[in-house]
Amino acid sequence: MIAIADNLNTRNKAYVDAVAGRDRKVIAEMIKKIADAGADMINIQCSLDGSGDEVTLPWVVGILSEATDCGVSLDSRNTLAIGKTMPLCNKPTLINFISKTEPRDREKLIALASDSGASLVIRASSGTIPSSLETKLQIIEDLIEAANAADIPNDRVYADPSIVHVGRGMGQKHLVNSRECIMLLKELVEPPLNTIAWVSNVSTGLPKALRKPLEASFLTYMAGSGLDAAMVDLLDENIKKAIYLIKAFRDEIVFSQADLT
After folding, report:
1. What residues does CATH 3.20.20.20 cover in the chain?
2. What is the number of helices (H) and of strands (E) in the chain?
3. Model confidence over 164-197: pLDDT tens digits?
4. Which residues neighbour 150 within 8 Å (Cβ) at sequence distance 6 or greater?
């Protein structure tokens, strides 16, 4: 299980303020704390729509590259910003994400991933998130074909079934077919591709006290489908323990009782 920390996002006010104020020290401390929590990769988001990312994204990633050797997931709607940032990364990056409708210059982003050797998240979305399993699979199939046509092999593709909030109207149905989507992709796609889920999305809108235990349980539920990578809050103890146990049960690490206590 690849643990991708999603802590550096636009919902994190302390982080947003530090980016706006160009507070290098605060950003570096945040990154160090996340890396020490066991992140395999850190997702970097500086805006929701990509505005200004050509300045802020390379600045934050430059700090990250000096502070840790964690992998980097670049989360931006600004293709120019991603292109400027990738040379600053210590390892091949993960570009997060393309869908059926995003970004508008999707072909440029695919070409950028192809030329650089980056991996690419493909999301089952067409502006809205489909509620049916069949539609999700069709969108993912089309995006796999687009990636393969640009010489991006399946081992650099991460399929995302699009996780929605459990509390919204069709939330539970969405979550069930997201798990089924992962299982079918693992069973049917050859050569194999990777799967990924933004686990933190499942609890949006719920009371704070419920969110992290729910996310940890959902992460374990999704891990049973064969999920390869998860976007999670790695600074939460519930999530850290869930990630640790999943890796131990998969024989990816050596289990030690001391690690849990």
Report:
1. 92-260
2. 10, 8
3. 999 876 788 889 999 999 999 999 999 999 999 9
4. 110, 111, 113, 114
**CA angle at residue 82 from 81 to 88, to 5 degrees?**
100
Distance in angstroms (rounded) separating the CA atoms of residues 24 and 162: 33
Amino acid in the structure at residue 157: V
Q: How far apart are CA 128 and CA 149, in angstroms?
A: 25
The end-to-end CA distance of the chain, in Å, is: 21
Burial class of 168 by CB neighbour count within 10 A (0 to 12, 13 to 18, 19+): exposed
Question: Is the model's pTM score more than 0.90?
Answer: yes
Widest distance between CA atoms in the chain: 49
Phi, psi (degrees; rounded to nearest 5) at 101: -120, -10
- The domain made up of 92-260 has a fold known as TIM Barrel (3.20.20)
Residue 249's closest CA among 223, 213, 215?
Answer: 223
